[in-house]
Amino acid sequence: MMASHHPLGAGPLCGAQIRYLIVSQRYGVVGGLSVSAAAWRVGARDQWLGWDDATRRAELQGVVCNSRFVVLPSVRVKHLGSHVLGQLARRVRGDWQHRYGLSPWLMETYVEAPRSGTVYRAANWIEVGMTAGRGRQDTAGTGGLAQKRVFLYPLSRPTLKRLCGRRAVPLPGWVRREFAGAKLGDRRLEERLLQLGAAFFAQPQANIPQACGSPAAAKAAYRFFDHNRVTMDALLEPHHQATIDRMRRESVVLVAQDTSSLNYTMHPEMQGIGPISNRVKGPQGLLVHSALAFRPDGLPLGLLDIECWARDPSEFGKKKLRHSKPIEAKESFKWIRALSPIGAAAGQCRSTRVVTLADRESDIFEYLLEARTKGLDVVVRAKENRALDQEVQRLWPHMHLRPRAGTIELQVPRHGKQPARTAEMSVHFGEVTLSPPQDKRHLAPIPMWVVFTREELPPKEVKEPLEWMLLTTVPVTGLVDALERVQWYARRWGIEVFHRILKSGCQIEDRQLGTADRLEACLAIDAVVAWRIHYLTWLGRATPDLPCTVAFEEDQWKAVIVFKTRKPPPAQPPSLRQMIRSIAQLGGFLARKSDGEPGTQTLWRGLQRMDDVTAAFRSFRTAYAMPP
């Protein structure tokens, strides 16, 4: 069974070992697992335990390794994996004692990246870091093997506390997944990045000294952002790769592009900023253009690209020259430039359809032509009433004459004083060929599909009824295809939520770092933190029944429950939805029947309070020798 279904085969296993079959009374053997001797030296494990070489030699016999675990591919039972791991944790100490006369107090396992180890997280295992990419036989330290995630599970917490009482609080596993492996050329810089990622997430609205927790740590953070190797691209590269790994698991991924501004008018000493409005003497700051990947249901998968720049004040007042400039010299080239990293990511996801979404600002002929030339799928909301090849009518009147194919209902969120509503939209679609603009006749016409949807009978208080003219390179052959393209574009608003979290939740506009270069490095960390907050908000809605341990550490969920209920924590962790709602309640969410699910704002406020509650929980437990 192991030889046929496990990537590492049946063995041989090293040293002492026990093999188990997973047996169902109704279906017989449904899987298997094995436990064997622990690895001799693992940096992430030894650092988490606080071991030196002498301590490891003395205590390693108390550690065992879950070296194999497989459930047959034909078996589909909800939460089976975490249930089996729970059974193993309760049984292995007695079995090991019976066979070898030793009672293990810690179990370890290794999950090859890019797998995330969801089943181990659900069973309350703790991710403590990554291996160095070396095997047992690599005595020369040459490496070259795939890195693996290191997970630990305490079998006896009293023994763990007695032997490793001074171990450091582990960094959250997601921090290592999104930042570990950044090529900064210095191990100390890489460790500082992990620490800052955890600190910024724990207190998203805090300034840098508050988030770091001490003057020394704050000074180290400022030195970090001032280092010449610490750039936005270098810091985000691990996150980009983690995002691509998540994309590979999906059949369709939507990538939304959008631009936002960061206002630093109140920081006149900031160097390297420029105008962010249409007035050269107006608000000053930076512009940010992001490309964020989503599942079709709206779950954000991560950033594929982010660009930050300042406008040159000397370029203002030259509007008349814009038609003589090549597209590469214009600010609007940002849309085309972002297609390169999106296309590179799509090339690494061969089984995934990647569709780029963009609003009316991206309705640029060269952008549509570049997407078509590179074979990239896009959905763009049209702004220009373009001429059509071989047609008398232009785009808008041409689509008005198309027969109505059906209707769709869209949920329109609240906007200003207008309440949320359900809009009934008519849907028209067709295939057209866009003619190039008069001053760009050298460019080739572009064949596109068009989906036109508009709100036929809006409420009287609605001044601007919804109307979308969507251009797409993805074929639209029927009503089902047309409705899908509308639903895809409706997910574009998720990137606006991301930018709101970045500015309001992470307080990026309040960062005081002196120069735009330092701010860009800080923006890289804040952007990943903003994505994580957005991700947790949606994950609680998309997969509410998962145990909260897939996203939160054990101390975190226990601390929140003790704080809210004033009672000891339960033996089993709450569901992810329950945990998200509990954290949001710390941030002001009322959890009334009519309130629906919490949003990002109450969640980021609650996360900051959760960090304080967890720190107090750990301190009291240590000071008063409370059971874990």
Give structural attributes.
628 residues; alpha+beta; Aminopeptidase; Transposase Inhibitor Protein From Tn5, Chain A, domain 1; Transferase Inhibitor Protein From Tn5, Chain A, domain2; ten-stranded mixed sheet; six-stranded mixed sheet; 16 strands; 38% helix
User: Number of helical segments?
Assistant: 21
**Which stretches of 5+ consecutive residues score pLDDT under 50?**
none
The named CATH superfamily of the largest domain:
Transposase Inhibitor Protein From Tn5, Chain A, domain 1
| Arithmetic mean of pLDDT | 88
SSE class:
alpha+beta
What is the CATH topology of the largest domain? Transposase Inhibitor Protein From Tn5, Chain A, domain 1
The count of β-strands is 16
Helix content: 25-40%
Distance between the termini: 38 Å
Major sheet size, sense and barrel closure: 10 strands, mixed
Strand fraction band?
A: 15-25%
Rounded to the nearest angstrom, the radius of gyration is 27 Å
What's the shape?
A: globular
What does this structure look like?
- This protein has 628 residues and is of the alpha+beta class.
- The chain has three domains: 2-136 and 143-170, Gcn5-related N-acetyltransferase (GNAT) (Aminopeptidase, 3-Layer(aba) Sandwich), CATH 3.40.630.30; 268-315 and 326-495, Transposase Inhibitor Protein From Tn5, Chain A, domain 1 (Alpha-Beta Complex); 543-623, Transferase Inhibitor Protein From Tn5, Chain (Transferase Inhibitor Protein From Tn5, Chain A, domain2), CATH 1.10.740.10.
- Helices cover 38% and strands 21% of the residues.
- It has 21 helices and 16 strands.
- It has helices spanning 2-5, 43-49, 53-59, 80-100, 118-122, 157-163, 173-179, 187-202, 208-212, 215-226, 232-247, 333-337, 339-347, 365-374, 395-400, 479-490, 493-505, 516-542, 554-565, 576-586, 600-623; strands at residues 17-24, 28-37, 63-71, 106-112, 126-130, 148-154, 252-263, 274-275, 284-294, 300-309, 353-358, 377-381, 406-412, 421-434, 446-455, 467-472.
- Strands 7, 8, 9, 10, 11, 12, 13, 14, 15 and 16 form a ten-stranded mixed sheet that branches. It has a six-stranded mixed sheet with strand order 1-2-3-4-6-5, sandwiched between helices.
- Helix 17 (493-505) packs across helix 21.
